[in-house]
Backbone:
């Protein structure tokens, strides 16, 4: 099992309500870029709208935007979680979206 000093991966899936504005996913991605992309403990970040690959039954389709963030270690993830820009992002989008998070040591 990887240790706490191994790289950490943070995966977030955002589900927007059916009555969300047509540009809500684009706005969420804009906020990721503006508030999260340059936080100091992030090693790598990717984000985007759900891809249309639902031809296989194992592919999840109950989300609208995905976010993948890699950190040097668990301490980096912990620092990210309490960073003021992350808190601002969560405060805005938490009430507007269904959010599922998966964290793992790589």
Residues:
């Amino acid at each position: 099992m990887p240790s706490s000093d191994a790289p950490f991966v943070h995966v977030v899936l955002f589900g927007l309500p059916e009555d969300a504005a047509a540009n809500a996913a684009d706005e969420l991605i804009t906020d990721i870029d503006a508030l999260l992309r340059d936080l100091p403990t992030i090693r790598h970040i990717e984000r985007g709208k759900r891809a249309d690959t639902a031809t296989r039954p194992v592919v999840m389709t109950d989300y609208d935007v995905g976010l993948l963030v890699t950190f040097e270690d668990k301490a980096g993830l912990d620092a990210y979680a309490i960073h003021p820009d992350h808190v601002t992002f969560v405060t805005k989008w938490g009430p507007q979206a269904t959010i599922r998070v998966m964290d793992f040591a790589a």
